[in-house]
Design brief:
- It is a single chain.
- This protein is an alpha/beta fold and 297 residues long.
- The protein contains ten helices and eight strands.
- The protein has an eight-stranded parallel beta barrel with strand order 1-2-3-4-5-6-7-8, surrounded by five helices.
- Strand 4, helix 4 and strand 5 form a beta-alpha-beta unit.
- It is globular.
- The structure holds flavin-adenine dinucleotide.
- Belongs to the methylenetetrahydrofolate reductase family.
- It comes from Aliikangiella coralliicola.
- Its EC number is 1.5.1.54.
- One of its GO terms (cellular component) is cytosol.
- One of its GO terms (biological process) is tetrahydrofolate interconversion.
Length: 297
């Protein structure tokens, strides 16, 4: 059913890539190699995550500036509001606008102790969307959770939260990663039925480190299906096979999504290019020189 020939997606798919600020010289090198390689795929934008403490904040700014200076990519910083004052956020937003940034991923950020159920935040992503829009007419993307955000009391509450963020000016939602594609598709339907009329861009995570995924999925309330446990079984010490499996799983996922009409994909690259490049390739996303019309068959 998923035969590539069933539908030709070349030129019809938009991709975006997410990076994070590296914390060593070696990882910095890996990041820039990845940025340069993935630039060839002409993504709609590339985004850089934002950490909760001051040093990672500075690194986000630095990487965003370097992307602006050294590439033709649209650089999109993530910004979180938890623990920050309104004055500080206004200042950051103004600086970004003055340096040519027109699109921000607006997030709340995690509570300092995310285990504390019932803890109240002083600011939510909705407040940040409003604040950014009051500073300038930024394009704003926000987060969405097909399997419900861990702190939300129920799915309806979470959906209303997303609707409010969109009504306040967000023009795109990027989803938490997921593996059960049906869950995403049902969520997309529920968003539509609730009057949320922006793209719910699926966040695709190629899983190369299954052990780490298990830890992370608990914190983020993401289900890791039994078939994934079976697929990665016995591969703890075999990174090469894990990479091949990761590419295969993600390629299947994006193809099913594409068949269901999804045309925008956001990749959690983890600062690596190889898997994301391969998955994009399978979606018909090519470098200009390799686009089908540029090749005489
Ligand atoms: P919100 O939309 O504010 O929602 C947070 C929770 O609060 C939800 O459960 C919501 O239902 C609930 N809520 C909303 N309003 C209220 C209210 N008034 N009263 C009570 N509860 C309420 N984290 C980072 O630190 N840096 C990043 O760069 C980063 N990038 C991300 C990118 C994507 C695409 C995604 C999906 C997540 C990212 N995160 C990042 C993680 C994110 O910060 C956390 O998931 C965080 O816990 C919630 O952020 P949010 O913007 O979804 O918050």
């Amino acid at each position: 059913i998923l035969n590539q020939n069933l539908f030709d997606l070349s030129g019809k798919v938009n991709v975006s890539f997410e990076f994070f600020p590296p914390n060593s010289a070696e990882m910095e090198k890996t990041l820039w190699n990845s940025v340069k390689r993935l630039e060839g795929l002409s993504p709609k934008f590339v985004s850089v995550t934002y950490g909760a403490n001051n040093s990672t904040r500075e690194r986000t700014h630095r990487i965003i500036s370097r992307i602006q200076q050294e590439t033709d990519l649209v650089a999109v910083p993530h910004l979180t509001c938890i623990g920050a004052s309104r004055e500080e956020l206004v200042e950051i937003a103004q600086e970004y606008w003055n340096s040519g940034i027109r699109h921000i991923v607006a997030l709340r950020g995690d509570l300092p102790d995310s285990d504390k159920v019932g803890q109240q935040a002083d600011m939510y992503a909705l407040d940040l969307v409003k604040l950014l829009k009051s500073v300038a007419d930024f394009e704003i993307s926000v987060a969405a959770y097909p399997e419900i955000h861990p702190e939300a009391p129920n799915p309806q509450f979470d959906l209303i939260n997303l609707k409010r963020k969109v009504d306040a000016g967000a023009s795109r939602a990027i989803s938490q990663f997921f593996f059960d594609t049906e869950t995403y598709l049902r969520y997309r339907d529920r968003c539509l039925a609730s009057g949320i009329d922006v793209e719910i861009v699926p966040g695709i995570l190629p899983v190369t480190n299954f052990k780490q995924l298990l830890r992370f999925s608990k914190m983020t309330n993401v289900t890791v299906p039994g078939w994934m446990h079976r697929l990665y079984q016995g591969l703890d010490e075999d990174a090469t096979t894990r990479n091949l499996i990761a590419a295969n799983v993600a390629i299947e996922q994006v193809k099913v999504l594409a068949k269901e009409g999804v045309r925008d994909f956001h990749f959690y690259t983890l600062n690596r290019s190889d898997l994301t490049y391969a998955i994009c390739h399978s979606l018909g996303v090519r470098e200009k020189a390799f686009e089908p019309q540029a090749i005489a068959v």
